[in-house]
Amino acid sequence: MTRNVQTPARPQLLARLVPARLRLVWRDALSLLLALGDRRTPATARLISLAALAYLVSPIDLIPDNLPVLGLGDDLLVVPMLLAFAARSLPAEVLARSRFRADAFSARRRWLVPAILGAALLLSLGLAYLLVRGAAALFH
């Protein structure tokens, strides 16, 4: 007698490459971006989102970015915290509609998050190579 054993479904590429928490942060950031276009979005949410973007691209940080791990760590803490605070100030129907639109966008563009992460990794490796090569040139 044979048993019918089902094999588990293959995980999607996005689920294998991107951790679940990062996918939620991506969805919420995309939702907030989509919500900013809604007229019902309060000015506080818009200002907080603008502050998060300004902090991300600003050369002025709580901890300088040239410190190896800590410099980017404050960006990884402050920006999602500001975005979460901005999302909390959205009306429930605006947030629900923008999350629905973000999920629909992500379903059509499954390659986008891994592509962005891959580009960031390649850029980081290239920058590290240039820094090491430049430091080696100083000692010759």
Key descriptive features of the protein:
140 residues, mainly alpha, 2 domains, globular
Provide a brief overview of the structure.
It contains six helices and no strands. It has 140 residues and is mostly helical.
The Cα radius of gyration reads 20 Å
Coarse morphology = globular
What is the string of SSEs from the N terminus onward?
Answer: HHHHHH
Assess the beta-strand content as a share of residues.
under 5%
What is the count of DSSP helices, taking H or I runs of 4+ residues? 6
Please mark out the parts with pLDDT under 50 across 5 or more consecutive residues, or reply none.
none
Coarse structural class:
mainly alpha
Largest sheet: none
Overall average pLDDT: 76
The first-to-last residue Cα distance is 74 Å
- State the share of residues found in helices, binned by percent: over 70%
Number of strands: 0
For the record, the count of structural domains works out to: 2
Description:
The chain has two domains: 17-109, no CATH class; 110-140. Helices cover 71% and strands 0% of the residues. It is built from six helices and no strands. The chain has helices at residues 13-17, 20-35, 43-57, 70-88, 92-108, 112-138. The longest helix is centred in the C-terminal third of the chain and has 27 residues, at 112-138. The protein is globular. The mean pLDDT is 76.
Helix and strand topology:
Elements: H1 13-17, H2 20-35, H3 43-57, H4 70-88, H5 92-108, H6 112-138
Helix pairs in contact: 2-4, 2-5, 3-4
